[in-house]
Design a protein that fits this description.
The chain is an alpha/beta fold. The chain has 2 domains: about 1-215, P-loop containing nucleotide triphosphate hydrolases (Rossmann fold); about 220-285, YebC, transcriptional regulation domain (Alpha-Beta Plaits, 2-Layer Sandwich). It is about 35% helix and about 30% strand. The chain has helices spanning about 40-45, 90-100, 105-115, 130-145, 160-180, 190-195, 215-220, 235-240, 265-270, 285-300, and strands spanning about 1-10, 15-25, 30-35, 55-60, 65, 75, 150-155, 180-185, 200-205, 205-210, 225-230, 245-250, 255, 275-285. The strands form 3 sheets. The chain has a 6-stranded mixed sheet, sandwiched between helices. A 4-stranded antiparallel sheet has the order 2-1-4-5, covered by helices on one side. It has a 4-stranded antiparallel sheet with strand order 12-13-11-14. A hairpin with a 2-residue loop joins strand 9 and strand 10. The radius of gyration is 23 Å and the shape is globular. About 30% of the residues are buried. The model has no long low-confidence stretch (mean pLDDT about 90).
């Protein structure tokens, strides 16, 4: 288990992380979210020991994280951290040895992952000769070669098409099932919703939203109603008490309401329409919650 306890980081007079606390259990995927400059990268670097904390405590399995524990951690950075003049094989050997693996282990794991990601032919190609998407695959492979106990993924799907995003997702889920503690950061909220059980949202280094994702969405009162019906009067929908917005697209109409209390009024209106084939009430998306929470802070 990873524990971050009351951690603060100053760069000179600038406060980058403000009394941040959270924990990631074994086999759990945790979301660390925020806009650019919110303190995510600083937090990641403190966790893996690249930056010293100003105050607070970070432990993995009840032990402070130091150089002796780096072979238990995998880190996929948002920025490319590959040595582009090396071949894929040389890159894997370099990172694997740093993590305490022997060359036989490294090559075996590398070959398995290269085959899985359909890039076996690139084993002896230089990194600089690969596309951005394939470089991302190699960077991901080097982060997980050692079957880490703690895996930090910062924008892991950058540069990937939907097929390869799914391949990444499947591997991440397999690592979770093996017991890896995973911290996941992405600006794509739909990816966070697919993975994360718990999360923290940072603004200016301070947590503004945290907890279990399902409970966060349940506590957020606003709902979305998805409607498909003929002759739906959009203007009259907007006039119903509790309706905050109505968005009509080519496939459906989405009605945003202030709370569950207003569903019946919308339903009574819609049932008068012809050929109603869809009326579905859903929780607000994480993206909507994120924008409201972050927006309120910045407006203040």
């Amino acid at each position: 288990m990873l524990k971050v306890e009351n951690v603060t980081k100053y760069y000179g007079d600038k406060l980058a992380v403000d009394h941040l606390s959270f924990e990631v259990k074994k086999g759990e995927i945790f979301g660390l979210l925020g806009v650019n400059g919110a303190g995510k990268t600083t937090t990641f670097r403190m966790i893996i020991g690249l930056l010293d904390m100003t105050s607070g405590k970070i432990t993995l399995n009840n032990k402070p994280i130091d150089y002796s524990m780096t072979d238990k951690i995998g880190f996929l950075t948002e920025e490319r951290s590959l040595l582009t003049k090396l071949t894929v094989f040389e890159q894997a050997i370099y990172y694997g040895v740093l993590k305490g693996m022997d060359k036989v282990q490294i090559e075996k794991k590398l070959d398995e992952y290269l085959e899985y990601f359909h890039i076996s032919d690139y084993k002896y190609r230089k990194i600089k000769e690969l596309s951005k998407g394939n470089q991302q695959k190699v960077q991901f492979i080097t982060a997980i070669l050692n079957d880490p106990e703690l895996l930090i993924l910062d924008e892991p799907f950058s540069g990937l098409d939907p097929i390869n995003v799914q391949l990444f997702m499947d591997v991440i889920k397999q690592l979770k099932e093996k017991g890896t503690s995973i911290i996941f950061s992405s600006h794509r909220m739909e990816h966070v919703e697919m993975f994360c059980e718990k999360l923290v949202v940072l603004v200016n280094g301070k947590s503004v939203l945290e907890g279990n994702l399902k409970e966060i969405k349940k506590a957020y009162r606003k709902k979305n109603i998805h409607i498909v019906a003929d002759n739906l009067n959009i203007q009259k929908l907007k006039e119903i008490e509790g309706v905050e917005d109505v968005i009509a697209n080519e496939t459906e109409t989405i009605v945003k309401i202030a709370s569950q209390d207003h569903v019946k009024k919308v339903f009574n209106f819609v049932k008068q329409c012809e050929d109603v084939s869809k009326f579905v009430v859903e929780d607000a998306s994480l993206n909507e919650i994120f924008l409201e929470k972050v927006g309120v802070i910045y407006e203040g």
